[in-house]
Write a sequence for this structure.
């Protein structure tokens, strides 16, 4: 493995860790979980199945969707998304443990943490997408849709997140009688993360690519 591949893989791993950190921060803001986490969290309350297990199952559905869209274009290495889906939960749990001390009472501080978590998640997604090593299943599906139908990744991400949140809201009202695990932070993430990804893409994509290419 040459130095450029090492750099590319390092940026990729960093991106995964940053996304996991961002998710932990969004949970600590107490204003609502991130869009991708919204369905697993709500289903956890309705079924008792662990959030990690539901997340893994949901990610498998996203992988199946990619296969349906790409057909023979689905690469062998993309199957490694399954491994990522199981490992990503570990990263998230570690950051949730490390951020246990964060417990703000001030709504201003909660809002600032929520906004920060959106930017952190977006920057991690940007690094993962730019390196194109192995994306997590939700972002990989967004990327497939983006390339297949010639749409901006960030715009696809916004619509995708809003769809997940809408499904989570529906499940929450039908089975829990109200909103659970979903709040202003969830809506903010659904609306802002894609836009932040677009911003990072426009400003830093060339610089990041130049770091790991000859």
């Amino acid at each position: 493995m040459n130095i450029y591949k090492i750099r590319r893989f390092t940026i990729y791993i960093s991106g995964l860790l940053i996304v996991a950190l961002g998710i932990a921060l969004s949970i600590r803001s107490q204003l609502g979980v991130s869009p991708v986490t919204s369905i697993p969290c709500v289903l956890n309350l309705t079924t008792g199945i662990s959030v990690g297990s539901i997340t893994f199952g949901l990610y498998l559905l996203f992988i199946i969707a990619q296969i349906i869209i790409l057909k023979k274009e689905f690469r062998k290495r993309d199957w490694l998304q399954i491994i990522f889906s199981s490992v990503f939960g570990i990263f998230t749990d570690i950051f949730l443990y490390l951020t246990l001390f964060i417990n703000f009472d001030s709504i201003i501080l909660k809002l600032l943490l929520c906004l920060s978590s959106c930017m952190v998640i977006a920057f991690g997604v940007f690094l993962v997408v730019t390196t194109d090593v192995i994306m997590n299943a939700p972002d990989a599906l967004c990327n497939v849709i983006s390339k297949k139908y010639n749409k901006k990744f960030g715009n696809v991400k916004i619509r995708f997140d809003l769809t997940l949140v809408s499904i989570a809201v529906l499940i929450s009202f039908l089975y829990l009688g109200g909103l659970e695990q979903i709040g202003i932070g969830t809506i903010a993430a659904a609306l802002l993360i894609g836009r932040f990804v677009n911003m990072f893409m426009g400003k830093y994509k060339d610089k990041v690519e130049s770091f790991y290419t000859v």
Q: What stands out?
A: The mean pLDDT is 88. The first helix runs from residue 3 to 28. Residues 3-212 form one domain.
